[in-house]
Amino acid sequence: MRMMRFLRTVLLLVASLSLTAFSCSKKKTIGDPYMLFEVHGTVYGDHKVADESTPQEGDSVLVTLPVKGIRVTSGNSEAVYTGSDGSFVIYGRSVPGSSVPLVFTDEDRYANGGPYQKQSKTVILRQRDAGDDLNYRGYWFASEVEVKMLLKNESLNPDPSLPTSSDTC
Asked: Which end of the chain has fewer CB atoms < 10 Å from its terminal CB, N or C?
């Protein structure tokens, strides 16, 4: 009987020590490190407008104005579109770093003064909030980002919806 009581006490002691050892272990991370980011900016582009300084009808001049309807993406973030004033705000999640790549695509072509060429820009971020000791590496931010879209040369880049000579027999 004494032996059983002794064994039970030893087992109880071992069990409590092992629980204490597990609770004091270091925190473990699950998954890859990441950061959250926010970028504010404006997209500009050249627009052909009538040149009123010449008497010739049909003369035009290029003027840089904000561009509406440009698709802005970054990695796995949800796409956003520029507003009527060319502005955008994109939020996302990325691998930790001090910059994030953005891609600007003109999907509506002629409706916004385009068509414009696809543009890429790496935006430098600054850290706004610190992360934790685990995977989260903080909240990063950039503002006043400006991007200039370049007009496509339609004679060199024909409409992809039209058949090419290789599509015909």
From this structure: C
Position with higher pLDDT, 34 vs 167: 34
Q: Give yes or no for a contact between 69 and 87, defined as CB atoms under 8 angstroms apart.
A: no
Q: Quick check: bond before 115 cis, omega within 30?
A: yes
CB 99 within 8 A of CB 107: no
Q: 100 exposed, middle or buried (CB, 10 Å; 0-12, 13-18, 19+)?
A: buried
In a domain, 166, yes or no: no
* pLDDT at residue 10, rounded to an integer: 67
Shortest CA distance to 141 belongs to which of 155, 130, 152? 130
Q: Name the token pair of 74.
A: 């970054």
Range of the domain at 68: 41-153
Q: How far is CA 82 from CA 43, 87, 88, 101, in A?
A: 7, 5, 5, 17
Looking at residue 133, its pLDDT comes to: 76
Q: Report the CATH number that the domain containing residue 126 is assigned in CATH.
A: 2.60.40
**C-alpha distances in Å from residue 154, one per residue of 116, 157, 159, 160:** 10, 5, 7, 10
* 99-106, strands of its sheet edge to edge: 80-81, 70-73, 99-106, 119-124
